[in-house]
Design a protein that fits this description.
Blueprint (H helix, E strand, L loop, with lengths): L1 H9 L5 H30 L19 E3 L16 E10 L5 E12 L24 E7 L19 E5 L7 E4 L11 E3 L5 E11 L11 E12 L12
Antiparallel strand pairs: 1-2, 2-8, 3-6, 3-7, 3-9, 4-5, 4-8
Length: 241
């Protein structure tokens, strides 16, 4: 008993009124904290706002090269050593952007469609020669030469004309300008808007020294036009039309 009394005197049990007081203080602090959070939320969210939108369309231009009809007219009986054939071809920019273009060629051997003519052996079988090797191809602007005839001289300026002897190539080969990106010597430039048009003359000649091995032979010549935009594509020459 005495020990219990001494313990109570040293560390008395707090009155229940003090415990209740501390509980009330704690609850009040929690209430004020929650109220502060609510007031802060109301303060940060209560703003005047507005929002507007607008839009616009973007339209890209076009690069579109169009070629006129093209077909060589052969001399009566077919070409003979020393013969020349020519054919003009119209090049039009039907796109909206100014463009520059280059011309490449590819020639392949074909099968004769006329087996009747005789070769050096006196038969109707095709000759053994590769006709491509005795052909010379020239491509030039008609505006830089007097027309497009078999007697028209080929310009010597590489910026307006290109010539290739021996057409036996394995891939498209540039003959006027270059298909590489950017302005190249010989590239031709045409304004956009569907109004730019140029005329080229395509000339093929057969070597006068061609032997009988080239009788009744065929070569198929193709031209490829590579075009690219002028704007934002390095410096470019003055349009030719």
């Amino acid at each position: 008993m005495v020990d219990d009394l001494l313990q109570e005197m040293i560390d008395p049990t707090p009155p229940r009124t003090d415990v209740s007081r501390w509980r009330r203080l704690g609850a009040t602090a929690v209430i004020f904290a929650l109220a502060g959070v609510g007031i802060t939320s109301l303060t940060t969210n209560a703003l005047f706002t507005d929002r507007e939108t607008t839009a616009g369309d973007l339209l890209t231009g076009t690069v579109d090269l169009s070629l006129g009809s093209f077909s060589f007219t052969m001399p009566d009986g077919g070409m003979a050593p020393g013969d020349v054939v020519v054919q003009p071809i119209t090049v039009t920019n039907t796109g909206s952007l100014a463009l520059r273009y280059a011309v490449s060629f590819l020639a392949s051997q074909g099968t004769s469609a006329t087996p009747n003519p005789t070769n050096s052996a006196g038969t109707g079988t095709p000759g053994t020669g590769d006709l491509r090797t005795v052909l010379t191809l020239s491509v030039f602007h008609v505006t830089d030469a007097p027309g497009c005839t078999t007697t028209t001289p080929v310009p010597t300026d590489p910026s307006v004309a290109g010539t290739q002897q021996n057409l036996a190539v394995s891939a498209y080969t540039p003959i006027l300008g270059s298909p590489q990106v950017g302005p190249q010597t010989g590239d031709s430039e045409i304004l956009g808007g569907g109004t730019g048009t140029q005329t080229l003359c395509v000339r093929l000649s057969m070597d006068p020294a061609s032997s009988n091995d080239y009788q009744n032979t065929v070569a198929h010549v193709s031209l490829r036009f590579d075009a690219e935009q002028v704007v934002n594509n390095t410096a470019s020459p003055t349009p030719t039309s």
